[in-house]
TrEMBL record:
One of its GO terms (molecular function) is catalytic activity. Pfam families: Amidase (PF01425). The lineage of its organism: Bacteria, Pseudomonadati, Pseudomonadota, Alphaproteobacteria, Rhodobacterales. It comes from the Bacteria. This is Amidase. Residues 24-428 form the Amidase domain. InterPro entries: Amidase, Amidase_CS, Amidase_dom, AS_sf. SUPFAM superfamilies: Amidase signature (AS) enzymes.
Length: 440
């Protein structure tokens, strides 16, 4: 069996059964990465010494019957904003060049204690503040189907590491779609739990009021297990089905102006879900446009607060479109940010009330397909417009405080986005498992 293309869950089962050696598996991933012609666009840096030491410890536990969990010995990649002791963590920006933390981020510590192997740190968009995956400052990861097209961001290298068989699974962050968008464009599963479900200590911040942590994976089972080893609860996916599930087909904003491929993927997915027993009903959230308007100012203001001390005086080191976006928060008043936050919470409560009768809401993960990197590099106005559109659908869940997951829709680089009320992560994963089984 080729361990580089199997699921993380199957790899964990093979290790537990004595059919796979964690050291040999880790060496296979490291060797493949070191030889891969696109590795420099995927990994910011590998961590072979750490990975092999962790793999040897996992092998000893396996031989002694003392495995710590379902992913003990399984190699994962980590986005380059999770602190890693003694390994540079630079968040895709020259402003943090050489930054080397002394401690692991909390979720990395937890995952390491659960036995997972840290292969290294993956490239990302600068500060994590764009959704396309373009980063001329460090590197731009490739899309799995065409390396000239963008992988999606900001967890771009995370998605590419799994899609190219250079990691069994990946950990990323999501502030407006940064896990789910690259997952959709690379036909992976991307899971964003609700904000606050995992700790953010040791994670380079962008917008702490919206930053979340989650997995990019080959299957829903993998996503559930990676979430579990980071500190989430165990989720039983057995017996998941769509019979009687209530789905709200969200039309407001996220249904507008879809490219033909995502539009057809959504239509096909909705029909298959209905044939499997789901009750699909149109849903409108009339306050959603106002939530988007509020969110733009809130995002920019908090991002500027996090990064202004680094940026001021070093503007020439930042990719111009990202600089423009983050600098737009410079003149937003604290009073306006406080009032906007309160207004957004009121809009959330109204949306949650409208969603209360549904198990999840459904839309296309992205309204567009992956664009060409060269076009986005050459035209910054086009970059700005395309970036906002790419993130439009995923950002809905961040603004409304939802848990959300993207699953492959059966057409290349298209995903179906399922979102539910916060605290329903387990139900959401079961629903995604049943959905994906019916789309296969």
């Amino acid at each position: 069996m080729d361990w580089r293309t199997t699921t993380a869950a199957d790899l964990g089962r093979a290790i537990a059964a004595g059919q796979a050696d964690p050291v040999e598996v880790t060496d296979a991933f490291l060797d493949a990465a070191e030889r891969h012609e696109l590795c420099g666009r995927i990994y910011a840096r590998l961590a072979p010494d750490r990975a092999r030491a962790e793999a040897r410890a996992a092998r000893d536990r396996a031989r002694s019957g003392l495995l710590r969990g379902p992913l003990d010995g399984v190699p994962l990649s980590w986005k380059d904003l999770f602190d890693s002791a003694g390994i540079r963590t630079e968040a895709g920006t020259a402003l943090l060049a050489g930054r080397t933390p002394e401690r692991d981020a909390g979720v990395l510590r937890t995952a390491t204690l659960a036995g997972t192997v840290c292969l290294g740190k993956t490239h990302m968009t600068e500060f994590a503040f764009s959704g396309l995956g373009l980063n001329p400052v460090t590197a731009t990861p490739p899309n799995r189907y065409d390396p000239d097209r963008l992988a999606g961001g900001s967890s771009s290298g995370a998605a590419a590491s799994v899609a190219y068989g250079l990691a069994a699974g990946a950990v990323g962050s999501d502030t407006g779609g940064s896990i789910r968008l690259p997952s959709a464009w690379n036909d992976l599963v991307g899971f964003k739990p609700a904000h606050g479900s995992l700790p953010l200590d040791g994670v380079v911040p962008l917008i702490p009021s919206f930053d979340t942590i989650g997995p990019l994976a080959r299957s829903v089972e993998d996503a559930a297990l990676i979430w579990q080893v980071m500190g989430g609860p165990r989720v039983d996916l057995s017996g998941a089905d769509l019979a009687g599930v209530r789905i709200g087909l969200l039309r407001t904003v996220v249904g507008d102006d879809l490219d033909p491929e995502p539009a057809q993927a959504l239509e096909d997915g909705m029909e298959r879900m209905a044939r499997a027993g789901a009750q699909v009903t149109d849903l409108e959230l009339p306050d959603l446009p106002l939530a988007y308007d509020l969110g733009s100012a809130l995002y920019a203001a908090e991002a500027w607060a996090c990064w202004r001390e680094r940026i001021e005086g070093s503007e020439d080191k930042v990719f111009a479109p990202v600089l423009a976006r983050i600098s737009s928060g410079r003149d937003i008043l604290a009073a306006d940010w406080i009032a906007g936050t309160a207004d957004l919470q009121r809009l959330r409560l109204r949306a949650w009330e409208a969603m209360a009768g549904f198990d999840a809401v459904l839309c296309a993960t992205a309204p567009i397909l992956p664009p060409l990197a060269a076009a986005m590099t050459a035209d910054h106005d086009l970059f700005r417009v395309t970036n906002l559109k790419a993130l439009r659908n995923t950002r809905m869940a961040n603004l409304l405080g939802l848990t959300s997951i993207s699953v492959p829709a059966g057409r290349l680089s298209c995903g179906l986005l399922l979102s539910a009320l916060p605290g329903r992560e387990g139900r959401m994963l079961r629903l995604a498992q049943a959905t994906l089984r019916n789309l296969a």
